[in-house]
Structure formats: C-alpha cells, structure tokens
Q: What sequence folds into this?
C-alpha cells in the first residue's frame, strides 16, 4: 500500500501509478466517472489507467496533484520513476544501470547548470 504523508502532502508508492490513482480515488470516495470528469478524460480510459492497460497522460499530473492535494513534484517523481523502472525491466537491464544513470545525470547537471 502507499504511504501518504498528509502533513507534507507527499507520496511514496510501491504499486503502479494506475493502482495508486485508484487508491487515491477510492480513499476520497470518488467514482471513476467523477474523477475522470475532474481530469477531463473519459471514465473508460481512466479505468484502463487504473488497471495498467493504458498510461496516465503526464499533462494531467498537475490536475491530479491538485485534486488530491499532493505535491506536484513528488507526484511527477513517482510518475517518471515508474516509466524508468518499466524500461529497465522490459530491457532486462542489470542493477548497475541505475548507478550509471545517476552518474550521467550528475554529468548532465554539471554541463548545463
């Protein structure tokens, strides 16, 4: 289950992003239709997101954060960490890829900051 720290409006999820949305939605007592309307999307598509059959549209992250009063950056971090994790898993990469990616991030930061 997710750990939601209401005092800091942060999340730390272990489930998929879609499953996390379902947890947030049901904890607020919202139906698929109600949340979909707030996100300007079709409830069938939201159902697919929650069931991991479709990816969540990153353009809606800010709306999602506002609806559930979650820090936007934290939610964005969760979203992208899942995308990266899926890519690593799908390509059968070793654990070393995370270490190497961190080094590359540091290099890129130093080059452009």
A:
């Amino acid at each position: 289950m997710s750990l939601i720290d209401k005092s800091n409006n942060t999340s730390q999820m272990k489930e998929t992003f879609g499953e996390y949305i379902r947890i947030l939605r049901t904890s607020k007592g919202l139906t698929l239709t109600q949340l979909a309307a707030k996100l300007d999307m079709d409830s069938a598509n939201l159902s697919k997101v929650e069931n991991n059959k479709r990816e969540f549209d990153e353009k809606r992250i800010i709306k999602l954060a506002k609806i559930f009063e979650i820090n936007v950056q934290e939610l964005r971090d969760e979203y992208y960490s899942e995308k990266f994790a899926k890519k690593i898993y799908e390509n059968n990469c070793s654990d070393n890829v995370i270490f190497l990616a961190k080094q590359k991030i540091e290099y890129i930061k130093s080059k452009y900051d």
Notes: DSSP finds six helices and two strands in the chain. The chain has one domain: 3-112.
